[in-house]
Amino acid sequence: MKYKIPVILIISLNLIVCASSQKRLEKQRAKDPQYQYNVGLVYLQNDRFDNAMVYLNKSLALKPNFDLALNALGIIHFIQGDFQKAMDYFEKCLVVNPELTEARNYLGSVYQEMGHLDKAEAEFKKAIADKTYLSRELPYYNLAKLYLTKGNDAEALNLVNTAIELNDRMIMALNLKGVLLERLGKLKEAIYSYEKALNIAPGDINLSYNLAIAYFKSDRRAEAKALFEKIYPNVTDEEIKSKIDEYLKVLK
Questions:
Q1: CB burial class (10 A; 0-12, 13-18, 19+) of residue 112?
Q2: Mean per-residue pLDDT over the chain, rounded
Q3: Whole-number pLDDT of residue 17
Q4: Is the pLDDT of residue 5 over 50?
Q5: Residue 151 DSSP one-character state
Q6: Where do runs of H (alpha helix) occur along 46-82?
Q7: What fold, for 135-202?
Q8: CATH of range 30-116; options 3.40.470.10, 1.10.10.60, 1.25.40.10, 3.30.9.10
Q9: What DSSP string runs through 72-126?
Q10: How many angstroms separate the Cα of 6 from the Cα of each of 11, 15, 18?
Q11: Where are the domains of the chain?
Q12: Percentage of residues in the chain with pLDDT exceeding 70?
């Protein structure tokens, strides 16, 4: 005689098995530094920094010399403007793994923000030298910005051109190229660079502002006025708003 197991009993047993499996999985994840890092990284990529730090710190508690977690925490502190903490994390990360070039590029940016220009330059050059680094346009761009600060416009332009060769849709590099060309008195080329960048990012206020000024300097007054008026309602920086007011008075 065959006995039939009630469906409700089967479902209950399945639920018990699933709950048990879930608990085991949660215990495994709680002890897995890579899993904690992965969750933290997702939060970081979505700008939820407080949540990200919780999981990244859990990851480091499980694996104190986890280079990727150290790098990610450095990035968060860099974004938040805490350059001392960012520097500490990036430097520790590079002691653990000197080959993590992303951390080296960020460390260069931290040094630059802190006014350590020679140290920043050294880090950017090391990052550029790593031919395996998939984002080499970033240290080229950062080094170009540093040379702009030092007043070495010609070398800065060479570097930013290399960054654009590596990534021709790099908006901030195209914008920086426009700034450098203006400083070098090449307004026509500067306008072309700004316009190219603005085609990629039509809503960028900073780009539009720079282009409008370049139009003004080139005596393309109607284009300058139209662009200033277009961006004015969306400008939140009071200093820039005040400057636009001055331009618009001249352009009446």
A1: buried
A2: 92
A3: 53
A4: no
A5: T
A6: 49-62, 67-79
A7: 1.25.40
A8: 1.25.40.10
A9: HHHHHHHHTT-HHHHHHHHHHHHHH-TT-HHHHHHHHHHHHHTT-HHHHHHHHHH
A10: 9, 15, 19
A11: 30-116, 135-202, 212-252
A12: 91
